[in-house]
Amino acid sequence: DETEFRNFIVWLEDQKIRHYKIEDRGNLRNIHSDDWPKSFEKYMKDVNCPFKMQERQETVDWLLGLAVRLEYGDNADKYKDSTPDGAKNTDNMAKNAEPLINLDVNNPDFKAGVMALANLLQIQRHDDYLVMLKVGFTERLTQDAIAKASQSKEGLPVALEKHILGFDTGDAVLNEAAQILRLLHIEELRELQTKINEAIVAVQAIIADPKTDHRLGKVGR
Question: Which InterPro entries does the annotation name (predicted)?
Answer without folding.
Answer: RTRAF
